[in-house]
Write a sequence for this structure.
């Protein structure tokens, strides 16, 4: 990144990573954005969404591991 101290480019990178289903990379980018600006509202909101997506993914994985495939 040309300006790694700015949160907006990291937030935008995170959105691209979400579209590519690279949620862990998106989380890392958003956490970096928030280290640079802890009050960045958009990055905070997007990080919350990424956490929800990660939680849903974990629950889907758990359901698949349960007897009967979670059905």
């Amino acid at each position: 990144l040309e300006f790694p101290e700015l949160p907006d480019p990291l937030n935008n990178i995170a959105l691209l990573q979400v579209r590519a289903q690279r949620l862990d990379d998106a989380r890392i980018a958003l956490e970096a954005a928030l280290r640079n600006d802890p009050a960045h509202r958009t990055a905070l909101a997007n990080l919350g969404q990424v956490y929800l997506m990660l939680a849903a993914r974990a629950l889907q994985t758990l359901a698949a591991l349960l007897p009967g495939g979670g059905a």
Remarks:
- Helices lie at 7-19, 23-36, 41-65.
